[in-house]
Write a structure and sequence with these properties.
Elements (H helix, E strand, L loop, with lengths): L20 H8 L10 E3 L8 E4 L5 E8 L7 H14 L4 E12 L3 H19 L2 E10 L6 E10 L13 E5 L4 H10 L1 H4 L5 H8 L8 H7 L5 E3 L5 H13 L2 E4 L8 H10 L13 E4 L4 H10 L4 E8 L13 H5 L2
Parallel strand pairs: 4-5
Antiparallel strand pairs: 1-2, 2-3, 3-6, 4-6, 7-10, 7-11, 8-10, 9-11
Protein backbone atom coordinates (compact mmCIF):
# COMPACT_ATOMS: atom_id res chain seq x y z
CA UNK A 1 0.00 0.00 0.00
CA UNK A 2 1.38 3.38 -0.99
CA UNK A 3 -1.01 5.51 1.08
CA UNK A 4 0.51 6.89 4.29
CA UNK A 5 -0.87 8.73 7.29
CA UNK A 6 0.63 11.67 9.09
CA UNK A 7 -0.20 12.62 12.64
CA UNK A 8 -0.33 16.18 13.95
CA UNK A 9 3.00 17.93 13.65
CA UNK A 10 5.00 14.77 13.02
CA UNK A 11 7.21 15.13 9.97
CA UNK A 12 7.73 11.43 9.36
CA UNK A 13 4.89 9.58 7.60
CA UNK A 14 3.33 6.63 9.39
CA UNK A 15 2.17 3.37 7.79
CA UNK A 16 -1.48 2.41 7.79
CA UNK A 17 -2.70 0.55 10.86
CA UNK A 18 -2.37 1.03 14.60
CA UNK A 19 -0.16 3.90 15.69
CA UNK A 20 3.31 2.93 16.92
CA UNK A 21 3.30 2.71 20.74
CA UNK A 22 5.66 5.64 21.26
CA UNK A 23 3.51 7.87 19.01
CA UNK A 24 0.31 6.70 20.68
CA UNK A 25 1.65 7.47 24.14
CA UNK A 26 3.05 10.89 23.28
CA UNK A 27 0.50 12.26 20.83
CA UNK A 28 -2.79 10.56 21.82
CA UNK A 29 -2.82 8.98 25.28
CA UNK A 30 -1.31 12.07 26.89
CA UNK A 31 -4.72 13.75 26.37
CA UNK A 32 -6.85 11.84 28.89
CA UNK A 33 -9.22 14.50 30.18
CA UNK A 34 -9.96 14.79 33.88
CA UNK A 35 -8.22 12.36 36.22
CA UNK A 36 -10.90 10.66 38.32
CA UNK A 37 -10.11 8.52 41.33
CA UNK A 38 -12.53 5.77 40.36
CA UNK A 39 -10.66 5.13 37.06
CA UNK A 40 -8.29 2.41 38.24
CA UNK A 41 -7.00 1.42 34.79
CA UNK A 42 -7.07 4.03 32.05
CA UNK A 43 -5.96 3.96 28.42
CA UNK A 44 -2.51 2.52 27.84
CA UNK A 45 -0.46 0.43 25.44
CA UNK A 46 -1.17 -3.20 26.34
CA UNK A 47 -4.37 -2.44 28.25
CA UNK A 48 -7.33 -4.07 26.49
CA UNK A 49 -9.95 -2.18 28.49
CA UNK A 50 -10.35 0.47 31.15
CA UNK A 51 -11.46 -0.43 34.68
CA UNK A 52 -13.73 1.81 36.77
CA UNK A 53 -14.36 1.21 40.48
CA UNK A 54 -18.01 0.80 41.50
CA UNK A 55 -16.97 0.93 45.18
CA UNK A 56 -18.80 -2.29 46.07
CA UNK A 57 -16.16 -4.87 45.19
CA UNK A 58 -17.09 -4.79 41.52
CA UNK A 59 -15.70 -2.90 38.55
CA UNK A 60 -16.99 -1.63 35.23
CA UNK A 61 -14.82 -2.68 32.29
CA UNK A 62 -15.04 -0.56 29.13
CA UNK A 63 -13.56 -1.31 25.69
CA UNK A 64 -13.97 0.10 22.19
CA UNK A 65 -12.88 -1.44 18.90
CA UNK A 66 -13.69 -1.22 15.18
CA UNK A 67 -13.38 -3.87 12.50
CA UNK A 68 -10.46 -3.31 10.12
CA UNK A 69 -9.41 -5.49 7.18
CA UNK A 70 -12.48 -7.75 7.04
CA UNK A 71 -15.89 -7.56 5.33
CA UNK A 72 -17.56 -10.97 5.70
CA UNK A 73 -19.22 -11.51 9.10
CA UNK A 74 -18.09 -8.03 10.13
CA UNK A 75 -20.93 -7.68 12.65
CA UNK A 76 -20.07 -10.93 14.39
CA UNK A 77 -16.37 -10.01 14.40
CA UNK A 78 -17.14 -6.61 15.90
CA UNK A 79 -18.88 -8.20 18.87
CA UNK A 80 -16.17 -10.83 19.33
CA UNK A 81 -13.20 -8.43 19.35
CA UNK A 82 -14.90 -6.22 21.92
CA UNK A 83 -15.93 -9.19 24.08
CA UNK A 84 -12.30 -10.37 23.97
CA UNK A 85 -11.15 -7.06 25.45
CA UNK A 86 -13.67 -7.34 28.29
CA UNK A 87 -12.72 -10.98 28.84
CA UNK A 88 -9.04 -10.03 29.23
CA UNK A 89 -10.00 -8.04 32.32
CA UNK A 90 -11.84 -11.02 33.78
CA UNK A 91 -15.17 -9.42 32.91
CA UNK A 92 -18.59 -10.49 31.65
CA UNK A 93 -19.92 -8.39 28.72
CA UNK A 94 -23.22 -6.62 29.33
CA UNK A 95 -23.97 -3.42 27.35
CA UNK A 96 -22.97 -2.29 23.85
CA UNK A 97 -23.13 0.98 21.91
CA UNK A 98 -22.60 1.06 18.15
CA UNK A 99 -21.53 3.50 15.45
CA UNK A 100 -22.37 2.57 11.85
CA UNK A 101 -21.27 4.87 9.02
CA UNK A 102 -22.68 3.29 5.88
CA UNK A 103 -21.69 4.40 2.35
CA UNK A 104 -24.67 5.54 0.31
CA UNK A 105 -24.00 2.85 -2.29
CA UNK A 106 -24.45 0.18 0.40
CA UNK A 107 -27.54 1.78 1.92
CA UNK A 108 -30.11 0.32 4.26
CA UNK A 109 -29.65 -3.35 3.17
CA UNK A 110 -26.07 -3.31 4.47
CA UNK A 111 -27.03 -1.57 7.72
CA UNK A 112 -29.82 -4.08 8.33
CA UNK A 113 -27.58 -7.09 7.58
CA UNK A 114 -24.81 -5.87 9.88
CA UNK A 115 -27.25 -5.08 12.68
CA UNK A 116 -28.79 -8.56 12.43
CA UNK A 117 -25.30 -10.09 12.71
CA UNK A 118 -24.53 -7.90 15.73
CA UNK A 119 -27.92 -8.68 17.28
CA UNK A 120 -27.41 -12.45 17.03
CA UNK A 121 -23.85 -12.30 18.33
CA UNK A 122 -24.89 -10.10 21.25
CA UNK A 123 -27.63 -12.57 22.19
CA UNK A 124 -25.04 -15.35 22.32
CA UNK A 125 -23.08 -13.38 24.95
CA UNK A 126 -26.03 -11.94 26.86
CA UNK A 127 -25.26 -8.40 25.68
CA UNK A 128 -27.89 -5.67 25.46
CA UNK A 129 -27.48 -3.03 22.72
CA UNK A 130 -28.21 0.22 24.53
CA UNK A 131 -27.53 2.93 21.96
CA UNK A 132 -25.30 4.36 19.27
CA UNK A 133 -25.43 6.16 15.94
CA UNK A 134 -26.31 5.05 12.39
CA UNK A 135 -25.69 7.22 9.36
CA UNK A 136 -25.77 6.96 5.57
CA UNK A 137 -22.83 8.93 4.20
CA UNK A 138 -21.19 9.85 0.89
CA UNK A 139 -17.81 10.57 2.50
CA UNK A 140 -16.56 6.99 2.77
CA UNK A 141 -16.10 4.24 0.20
CA UNK A 142 -16.18 1.50 2.83
CA UNK A 143 -18.33 1.09 5.94
CA UNK A 144 -17.02 2.23 9.32
CA UNK A 145 -18.23 -0.12 12.07
CA UNK A 146 -17.27 0.53 15.68
CA UNK A 147 -18.52 -0.71 19.03
CA UNK A 148 -18.11 0.26 22.66
CA UNK A 149 -18.73 -2.55 25.14
CA UNK A 150 -19.28 -2.32 28.89
CA UNK A 151 -18.81 -5.29 31.16
CA UNK A 152 -18.72 -6.11 34.86
CA UNK A 153 -15.94 -7.87 36.78
CA UNK A 154 -14.77 -8.56 40.31
CA UNK A 155 -11.13 -8.97 39.20
CA UNK A 156 -8.49 -6.26 39.10
CA UNK A 157 -5.26 -7.12 37.30
CA UNK A 158 -2.28 -4.84 37.89
CA UNK A 159 1.07 -5.07 36.13
CA UNK A 160 2.70 -4.19 39.45
CA UNK A 161 1.85 -7.70 40.64
CA UNK A 162 3.88 -9.40 37.89
CA UNK A 163 7.23 -10.93 38.66
CA UNK A 164 10.17 -12.32 36.71
CA UNK A 165 9.62 -16.07 36.50
CA UNK A 166 5.89 -15.83 35.73
CA UNK A 167 4.90 -17.82 32.65
CA UNK A 168 3.12 -16.76 29.45
CA UNK A 169 0.42 -19.16 28.24
CA UNK A 170 -1.05 -18.94 24.74
CA UNK A 171 -4.32 -20.63 23.71
CA UNK A 172 -5.16 -22.00 20.23
CA UNK A 173 -2.74 -21.21 17.35
CA UNK A 174 -1.03 -18.15 15.90
CA UNK A 175 -2.49 -16.03 13.05
CA UNK A 176 -5.95 -17.52 13.50
CA UNK A 177 -7.80 -14.30 12.63
CA UNK A 178 -5.43 -13.18 9.89
CA UNK A 179 -5.73 -16.53 8.16
CA UNK A 180 -9.53 -16.50 8.36
CA UNK A 181 -9.56 -12.99 6.84
CA UNK A 182 -7.32 -14.15 4.00
CA UNK A 183 -9.59 -17.12 3.27
CA UNK A 184 -12.70 -14.92 3.32
CA UNK A 185 -11.48 -11.76 1.59
CA UNK A 186 -8.60 -12.95 -0.63
CA UNK A 187 -9.16 -16.63 -1.43
CA UNK A 188 -7.49 -15.96 -4.79
CA UNK A 189 -4.15 -15.80 -2.93
CA UNK A 190 -4.71 -19.29 -1.54
CA UNK A 191 -6.30 -21.07 -4.50
CA UNK A 192 -3.03 -21.81 -6.37
CA UNK A 193 -1.86 -24.16 -3.60
CA UNK A 194 -4.89 -25.00 -1.40
CA UNK A 195 -8.05 -26.86 -2.41
CA UNK A 196 -11.59 -25.68 -1.68
CA UNK A 197 -11.89 -27.82 1.44
CA UNK A 198 -8.72 -26.35 2.93
CA UNK A 199 -9.83 -22.77 2.24
CA UNK A 200 -13.27 -23.49 3.71
CA UNK A 201 -11.60 -24.95 6.79
CA UNK A 202 -9.50 -21.82 7.29
CA UNK A 203 -12.54 -19.63 6.74
CA UNK A 204 -14.34 -21.55 9.50
CA UNK A 205 -11.71 -20.38 12.00
CA UNK A 206 -13.73 -17.16 12.23
CA UNK A 207 -16.04 -19.06 14.59
CA UNK A 208 -13.12 -19.56 17.02
CA UNK A 209 -12.24 -15.91 17.57
CA UNK A 210 -13.68 -15.56 21.06
CA UNK A 211 -11.38 -15.90 24.08
CA UNK A 212 -14.27 -15.58 26.52
CA UNK A 213 -14.48 -19.36 27.22
CA UNK A 214 -10.82 -19.65 28.24
CA UNK A 215 -10.92 -16.38 30.18
CA UNK A 216 -13.68 -17.84 32.34
CA UNK A 217 -11.40 -20.78 33.16
CA UNK A 218 -8.31 -18.70 33.91
CA UNK A 219 -9.49 -15.41 35.34
CA UNK A 220 -9.07 -16.43 38.99
CA UNK A 221 -5.56 -17.78 38.29
CA UNK A 222 -4.22 -15.23 35.83
CA UNK A 223 -2.10 -12.29 36.90
CA UNK A 224 -2.76 -10.54 33.58
CA UNK A 225 -4.47 -11.38 30.27
CA UNK A 226 -4.11 -9.83 26.83
CA UNK A 227 -5.75 -10.19 23.41
CA UNK A 228 -3.13 -10.13 20.60
CA UNK A 229 -4.93 -8.37 17.77
CA UNK A 230 -3.05 -6.25 15.22
CA UNK A 231 0.63 -7.14 15.38
CA UNK A 232 -0.08 -10.74 16.32
CA UNK A 233 1.62 -12.69 19.10
CA UNK A 234 4.81 -10.63 18.99
CA UNK A 235 2.83 -7.40 18.80
CA UNK A 236 0.69 -8.38 21.78
CA UNK A 237 3.74 -9.36 23.81
CA UNK A 238 5.54 -6.13 22.86
CA UNK A 239 2.57 -4.12 24.17
CA UNK A 240 2.56 -6.11 27.36
CA UNK A 241 6.35 -5.70 27.67
CA UNK A 242 6.04 -1.94 27.27
CA UNK A 243 3.25 -1.78 29.85
CA UNK A 244 4.96 -3.91 32.49
CA UNK A 245 8.57 -2.84 31.97
CA UNK A 246 9.62 -6.50 32.20
CA UNK A 247 11.37 -8.50 29.51
CA UNK A 248 9.88 -11.58 27.86
CA UNK A 249 11.90 -14.67 27.02
CA UNK A 250 9.76 -15.84 24.08
CA UNK A 251 10.45 -19.24 22.54
CA UNK A 252 9.08 -19.01 18.95
CA UNK A 253 9.39 -22.78 18.51
CA UNK A 254 6.75 -23.28 21.21
CA UNK A 255 4.18 -21.07 19.46
CA UNK A 256 1.58 -23.42 17.91
CA UNK A 257 0.97 -23.14 14.16
CA UNK A 258 -1.78 -24.97 12.31
CA UNK A 259 -0.49 -27.16 9.43
CA UNK A 260 -2.53 -25.11 6.93
CA UNK A 261 -0.93 -21.92 8.26
CA UNK A 262 2.50 -23.47 7.71
CA UNK A 263 1.60 -24.23 4.08
CA UNK A 264 0.43 -20.66 3.47
CA UNK A 265 3.60 -19.29 5.08
CA UNK A 266 5.74 -21.27 2.65
CA UNK A 267 3.91 -19.78 -0.33
CA UNK A 268 3.21 -16.20 0.78
CA UNK A 269 6.26 -15.75 3.02
CA UNK A 270 5.01 -13.90 6.09
CA UNK A 271 5.79 -14.00 9.80
CA UNK A 272 2.81 -15.71 11.51
CA UNK A 273 3.86 -14.27 14.87
CA UNK A 274 3.16 -10.81 13.42
CA UNK A 275 -0.21 -11.75 11.91
CA UNK A 276 -3.39 -10.48 13.62
CA UNK A 277 -4.43 -13.16 16.14
CA UNK A 278 -7.76 -12.41 17.77
CA UNK A 279 -9.00 -15.70 19.18
CA UNK A 280 -5.71 -16.29 20.99
CA UNK A 281 -5.53 -15.50 24.70
CA UNK A 282 -2.18 -14.55 26.23
CA UNK A 283 -2.29 -15.15 29.97
CA UNK A 284 0.42 -14.61 32.58
CA UNK A 285 0.31 -17.39 35.18
CA UNK A 286 2.45 -17.98 38.23
CA UNK A 287 4.45 -21.22 38.09
CA UNK A 288 2.53 -22.62 41.05
CA UNK A 289 -0.76 -22.28 39.14
CA UNK A 290 0.43 -23.72 35.82
CA UNK A 291 -0.72 -27.30 36.40
CA UNK A 292 -4.20 -26.19 37.45
CA UNK A 293 -4.49 -23.86 34.45
CA UNK A 294 -3.49 -26.65 32.09
CA UNK A 295 -5.92 -29.08 33.72
CA UNK A 296 -8.86 -26.71 33.31
CA UNK A 297 -8.08 -25.93 29.68
CA UNK A 298 -7.50 -29.57 28.75
CA UNK A 299 -10.77 -30.56 30.42
CA UNK A 300 -12.64 -28.17 28.10
CA UNK A 301 -10.63 -29.14 25.02
CA UNK A 302 -8.90 -25.77 24.65
CA UNK A 303 -5.31 -26.19 23.40
CA UNK A 304 -2.68 -24.14 25.21
CA UNK A 305 1.10 -23.84 25.28
CA UNK A 306 3.66 -22.16 27.51
CA UNK A 307 5.49 -19.92 25.04
CA UNK A 308 7.67 -17.81 27.30
CA UNK A 309 8.63 -16.47 30.68
CA UNK A 310 8.84 -13.00 32.19
CA UNK A 311 12.41 -11.88 32.85
CA UNK A 312 13.98 -8.79 34.44
CA UNK A 313 13.92 -5.48 32.53
CA UNK A 314 16.41 -5.34 29.68
CA UNK A 315 16.50 -9.11 29.23
CA UNK A 316 14.55 -11.35 26.86
CA UNK A 317 14.02 -11.09 23.11
CA UNK A 318 13.37 -7.84 21.18
CA UNK A 319 9.73 -7.45 20.16
CA UNK A 320 7.80 -5.00 17.95
CA UNK A 321 4.23 -4.43 16.84
CA UNK A 322 4.33 -4.48 13.01
CA UNK A 323 1.43 -6.22 11.26
CA UNK A 324 1.81 -8.63 8.31
CA UNK A 325 -1.83 -8.83 7.18
CA UNK A 326 -1.89 -5.56 5.25
CA UNK A 327 1.17 -6.48 3.21
CA UNK A 328 -0.21 -9.92 2.37
CA UNK A 329 -3.65 -8.56 1.42
CA UNK A 330 -1.92 -6.18 -0.98
CA UNK A 331 -0.09 -8.96 -2.87
Amino acid sequence: MEEMKTLGSLNEPLPLGKLPPEVLEKKILSFAGMLREEVLVGPGVGEDASVIDLFDGRYLVVASDPIVGASRDAGKLLVNVNVNDIACKGGDPAYMLLTLLVPQKEGLPFAERIMEEIHLACRDFGISIVGGHTEITDRYDNPVISGTLIGITSYLYRVEDLRAGDLVIMTKHAAIEGMSILASDRPDLLEPFLDREDIASIRSWSSDLSVYPESLLLRDLAKFMHDPTEGGIKGGLSEFQRLSGLGIDLDPDRVPLHPLTRRVIRELEFDPLHMISSGVLLAVIGKDDLDEARRRLEEKGIPASVIGELVPPGEGVPLDSREELWRVLDL
